[in-house]
């Protein structure tokens, strides 16, 4: 008894007693777990724990990826780069040759001119010209590059599965010639032969506009031609060749364009002169044969009136078509009718919504108050009682009245919308009929006037058209003559607007590959990927490992964390007692009795304190200890909990209610001839109970084994006989602890849960699934059982994730007691 009092007064129990809430607080604790905001995802500390748990995976992945990257980068050859600068100026004539009467505008005033030249620098036609003019196809560098491209097995595999593309298929293959397209079979064959070399240049060529600086992005008229190759001299040679050929092609294009333009202008001038001469002859003949009255502006009166009526007809026809389209479109589309009536509906809807919103807010507030009141009543009364039914009737009445009000509001909106839609449609129809009538009236006048003008002024119309045509052709002729003169001057006096401003020189330092940066990046990325993989595996882990996860996922209090035997430090003396205990199994289920000073015994004393303080006024008399699935340690937990309760000096009875796999008789080495099954299958008397109940001399614990295994355990445990037996046993003993089968597999534990003061759910750390345990707790709550909390069993203290406090405290407490005993 002295040892028991010392156990009760241990510091951990004192802390638990100070922090344990009252019964009213415990009853209100479950709603807090249910309604409180749950943390989503991992916290920063949990991220670190998840990564450290699988640190070997992160390290292995990082080492493997970094090693492979380093080997690959070492084997890659060094690449050198060379850059030539090309300047693209405005295309304009020499200012000293511009005539006084006309300033020739810049031909590249279009902003797309510079971008066009940028694209031409990397075009396939220009690169074919470079290869041909400088005989690049016969150089050993290009021959080696072509051999590497054709024998690249890895790139061929990527192209076959669609992960790489052939650059030759993404570029146009039109050669840069004086003609718009290829005209001979020889030129086609030459372009096909040059295609592989063009692809080689495109693969390592970069054409980019030059900016003012790295910090600013102001545009310049400079273009950088950068080529990369394993040979620095060859890279500079190719870059300079591209710039040189580009300037030559541009000069040839400008000269050819001026010549073709002049030829076209001369042909057009001859055609216009012929047309003007013929139209003048026709005009003289018509003027002599027709006598026509003209107004002051040389226009006939009939034609003036006909032109005015024609304009009126066109305007009236447009108005009629718009009105007709609006009317028939809206007529055939109820949605558009509603959209046109939206302005009127908005005012009406706003007024009604304000009224119905106030009513809805008030009704919903009353319903919320009634539901809150119902939740409070349910704490005292059960479903179906008069008090709960009255509240349900009031809630249903308010919901019905609210639905009716909303229905009436919708009906009023539909009726008003229908009236408004009809009015809008009628207005559109009226407007359509009015415009149609106006059009018909004007068209009658136009037809009448057209008939009069058709016979009288046919010649006047022809004369007017001829005069207009002659004036237009004369204006075109003057402009073309000026263009011919300006082109001749510009072609003779304008320099090439594209030039090479800076040639490329061989570079002594390679630009690629960036070996150290790539290896370092591979190390960082592989480490991050390994950490992400570790976090993903942690996310897939559905087991419960900590007390925080118990409260977060199950919404139940964690009463205690029982450490695993493997994680406990070795003790010099595991069992306390005389030499007659030497043959006893050191891993006995009687952990509290075998070694009272171990961290395991301290954990069960912590659990005992939580149980004693779980209800207000008195400690629970009857207690069910169960689990969701087999092999979670419920029998060991029930046995040691009963022993720890017995150490307080009370009479404690443990009942083996697991009639499918009973173990209590084997743990205490007692017979199982008579037990719970024999009591439930016969009339209950005090004598039979005293005969069936046994006492363990070592632990002072009273035992009621399962007895012979019956064919129908669930019917016996759920009978009224079981409830009567529990009442009789609670009158004889201070505490009654029951061990039942797993509730997820059998209904025995669920049946017993409704008969006891409370239930403790045992969860195996790192093995029990959250979904299974959550379903088990829901089953218990559905029958009205009171769950005191969860015991997290078999916790590995060596992980130091969430149990460093338990480990350090239990170990210090145990060693201190060893020192005191010595």
How does this model look, in words?
- By secondary structure, the chain is an alpha/beta fold.
- The protein contains 30 helices and 12 strands.
- Strands 5-12-11-6-10-7-9-8 form an 8-stranded mixed sheet, with helices on both faces. Strands 2-3-1-4 form a 4-stranded antiparallel sheet.
- Strand 2 and strand 3 form a beta hairpin.
- Helix 8 crosses helix 11 (185-204).
Class from helix and strand fractions: alpha/beta
Radius of gyration: 50 Å
Query: Which strand-content bin applies to the residues?
Result: 5-15%
List segments where confidence is low: pLDDT < 50 over at least 5 consecutive residues. 1-29, 34-41, 96-108, 170-182, 570-587, 802-806, 808-822
Indicate the overall shape.
flat
Number of strands: 12
Please bin the fraction of helical residues.
Answer: 55-70%
What's the tally of helices? Answer: 30
The CA-CA distance between the termini, in Å, is 20 Å
- Biggest sheet descriptor: 8 strands, mixed
Widest β-sheet, arrangement of strands: 5-12-11-6-10-7-9-8
Average pLDDT taken over every residue: 75
């Amino acid at each position: 008894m002295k040892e028991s009092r010392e156990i009760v007064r241990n510091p951990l129990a004192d802390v638990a007693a100070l922090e344990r809430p009252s019964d009213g607080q415990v009853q209100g604790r479950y709603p807090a777990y249910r309604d409180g905001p749950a943390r989503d995802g991992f916290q920063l500390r949990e991220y670190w724990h998840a990564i450290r748990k699988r640190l070997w995976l992160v390290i292995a992945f990082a080492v493997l990826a970094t090693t492979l990257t380093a080997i690959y980068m070492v084997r890659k050859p060094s690449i050198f780069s060379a850059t030539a600068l090309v300047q693209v100026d405005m295309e304009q004539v020499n200012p000293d040759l511009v005539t006084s009467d006309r300033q020739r505008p810049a031909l590249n005033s279009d902003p797309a001119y510079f971008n066009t030249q940028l694209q031409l620098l990397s075009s396939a036609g220009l690169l074919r010209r470079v290869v041909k003019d400088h005989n690049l196809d016969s150089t050993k560098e290009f021959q080696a590059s072509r051999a590497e491209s054709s024998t690249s097995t890895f790139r061929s595999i990527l192209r076959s599965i669609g992960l790489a593309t052939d650059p030759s298929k993404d570029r146009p293959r039109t050669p840069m010639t004086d003609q718009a397209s290829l005209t001979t079979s020889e030129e086609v064959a030459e372009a096909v032969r040059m295609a592989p070399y063009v692809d080689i240049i495109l693969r390592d060529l970069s054409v980019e506009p030059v900016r003012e600086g790295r910090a600013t992005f102001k545009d310049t008229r400079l273009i950088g031609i950068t080529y990369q190759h394993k040979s620095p001299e060859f890279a500079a040679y190719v870059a300079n060749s591209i710039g040189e050929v580009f300037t030559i092609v541009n000069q040839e294009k400008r000269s050819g364009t001026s010549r073709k333009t002049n030829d076209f202008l001369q042909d057009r001038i001859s055609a216009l002169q012929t047309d003007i001469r013929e139209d003048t002859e026709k005009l003289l003949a018509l003027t002599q044969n027709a006598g026509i009255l003209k107004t002051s502006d040389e226009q006939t009166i009939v034609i003036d009136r006909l032109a005015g009526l024609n304009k009126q007809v066109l305007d009236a026809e447009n108005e009629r078509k718009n009105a007709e389209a609006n009317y028939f479109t809206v007529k055939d589309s109820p949605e558009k009718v509603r959209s046109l009536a939206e302005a009127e509906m908005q005012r009406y809807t706003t007024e009604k919504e304000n009224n119905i919103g106030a009513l809805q807010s008030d009704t919903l507030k009353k319903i919320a108050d009634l539901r809150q009141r119902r939740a409070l009543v349910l704490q005292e009364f059960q479903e179906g009682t008069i008090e709960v039914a009255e509240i349900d009737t009031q809630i249903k009445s308010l919901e019905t009245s609210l639905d009716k009000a909303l229905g009436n509001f919708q009906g009023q909106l539909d009726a008003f919308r229908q009236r408004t839609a009809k009015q809008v449609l009628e207005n559109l129809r009226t407007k359509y009929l009015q415009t149609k009538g106006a059009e018909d009236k004007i068209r009658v006048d136009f037809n009448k006037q057209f008939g009069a003008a058709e016979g009288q002024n046919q010649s006047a119309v022809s004369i007017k058209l001829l005069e207009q045509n002659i004036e237009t052709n004369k204006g075109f002729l003057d402009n073309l003559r000026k263009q011919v003169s300006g082109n001749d001057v510009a072609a003779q006096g304008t320099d090439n607007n594209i030039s090479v401003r800076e040639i490329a020189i061989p570079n002594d330092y390679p630009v690629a590959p960036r070996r150290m940066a790539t290896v370092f990046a591979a190390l960082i990325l592989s480490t991050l990927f390994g950490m992400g993989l570790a976090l993903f595996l942690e996310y897939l882990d559905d087991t419960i490992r900590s007390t925080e996860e118990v409260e977060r996922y199950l919404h139940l209090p964690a009463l205690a964390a029982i450490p695993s035997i493997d994680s406990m430090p070795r003790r010099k003396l595991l069992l306390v007692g005389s030499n007659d205990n030497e043959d006893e199994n050191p891993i006995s289920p009687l952990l509290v009795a075998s070694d009272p000073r171990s961290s395991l015994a301290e954990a069960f004393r912590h659990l005992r304190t939580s149980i004693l303080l779980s209800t207000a006024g008195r400690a629970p008399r009857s207690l069910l200890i169960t689990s969701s699935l087999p092999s979670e340690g419920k029998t060991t937990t029930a046995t040691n909990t009963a022993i720890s309760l017995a150490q307080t000096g009370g009479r404690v009875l443990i009942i083996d209610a697991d009639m499918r796999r009973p173990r209590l008789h084997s743990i205490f080495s007692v017979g199982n001839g008579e037990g719970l099954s024999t009591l439930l299958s016969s009339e209950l008397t005090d004598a039979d109970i005293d005969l069936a109940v046994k006492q363990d001399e070592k632990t002072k614990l009273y035992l009621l084994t399962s007895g012979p295994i019956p064919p129908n355990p669930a019917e016996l445990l759920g009978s009224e006989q079981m409830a009567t037996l529990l009442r009789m046993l609670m009158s004889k003993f201070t505490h009654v602890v029951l061990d039942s089968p797993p509730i997820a597999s059998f209904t025995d534990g669920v049946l017993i849960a409704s008969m006891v003061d409370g239930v403790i759910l045992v969860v195996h750390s790192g093995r029990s699934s959250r979904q299974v345990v959550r379903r088990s707790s829901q089953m218990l709550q559905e029958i009205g059982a009171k769950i005191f909390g969860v015991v997290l069993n078999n916790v590995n203290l060596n992980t130091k994730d969430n149990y460093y406090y338990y480990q350090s405290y239990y170990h210090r407490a145990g060693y201190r007691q060893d020192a005191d005993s010595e």
